[in-house]
Amino acid sequence: MSSNRHLSRIIALQSLFEHEFRSRAEIEGLTSDVNQIFNRNLEVYKDNLSDDGFARDLVEGTIKNQTKEDELIAPAAPEWPIEQIAKMDLTILRLAVYELMMKHEVPPKVVINEAVELAKSFGGDNSSKFINGVLGTIYRQSKFYDPTEDHKVQREQGQNQSDVEPDPKSGSESKPESGQPKASPTTSARRSSSRQVQTSQIADQSAVNGKAESGESDSQVESDSESGQAESVTPTIQPRSPDEVGSELESETETGQSIDSPAKPTT
User: Helix 53-64 and helix 34-44: axis angle, to 10°?
Assistant: First the structure.
């Protein structure tokens, strides 16, 4: 059944693309009758297609609702006006939008996946990404959108839940700050233990340094005290008698020296 529908979409796509090309070719004598085009393409695949009803409905429905389809495509691809979109990409989009928004016979994710596969087979290098993005936008903005069927939303929700970790103190969940890696309980315990060890080592080292400085100060005081440098002592001047001063003057007069002048060298 699925293979028949996939083949039906291929026949419908080829018929719609040929009809679009013939309609715009403006060649005299070139017919653009969509039924004639469809029947010719159907003849090629008649041995592999058991029922042509699904393919015929796709062709007729897409052409009938083309104006509505373009109105949905345009806002979903604002940087690409309808007339600038590649004809094969535009045909795939119209076919998928009809099946997605008007027909409602196949689940949305199946319709989008089928359109992406058609783009890979018949479109350009970037056609599949472009069509997937446009159809995804159209579907999410529609009233038929169901978040439970959206794999992208489910992945985002799963990532958000994995980023939330319980708070053991309050019993609630807290999210880590943006850009900050989460630390496991084992890692946190190791970091706390390491900080405690470092703090203890710093305290011990400070105590040792304090004792060493105290010991140096005590020994310095003792050494200074022994050498007479610990404190400044003012010498006591003993008064001399006039006789002592006179005898000192007489002695200096004999040698030719004065008290205030330095001694002259003898020759």
Answer: 150
Rounded-to-integer distance, Cα 18 and Cα 12, Å: 10
Q: Which helix (H) or strand (E) holds 173?
A: strand 173-174
Dig out the tokens for 253 from the structure.
């007069």
Other beta carbons within 10 Å of 182: 10
Separation of alpha carbons 72 and 130, rounded Å: 15
Instruction: Reduce the DSSP state of residue 123 to 3 states and report it.
Output: coil
Q: Note the pLDDT of residue 113.
A: 96
Query: Other CB atoms closer than 10 Å to residue 232's CB: what's the count?
Result: 6
Helix, strand or coil, per DSSP, at residue 111: helix
pLDDT at 23: 86
The alpha carbon of residue 198 and the mean position of all alpha carbons in its chain are separated, in whole angstroms, by: 34
As a whole number of angstroms, the distance between CA 132 and CA 128 comes to: 6
Secondary structure of residue 166 in the 3-state scheme: strand
Q: Which amino acid is at 91?
A: T
Q: How far apart are CA 133 and CA 9, in angstroms?
A: 20
Token code pair at residue 151: 């794999």
Compute how many other C-beta atoms are within 10 angstroms of the C-beta atom of residue 179: 5
Residue 190, classed as helix, strand or coil, is helix
Weakest-pLDDT range from 17-26, 119-128, 131-140, 229-238: 229-238
What CA–CA distance (Å, rounded) separates 72 from 138? 7
Q: Which helix (H) or strand (E) holds 165?
A: strand 165-166
Q: What percent of the chain has pLDDT over 90?
A: 44
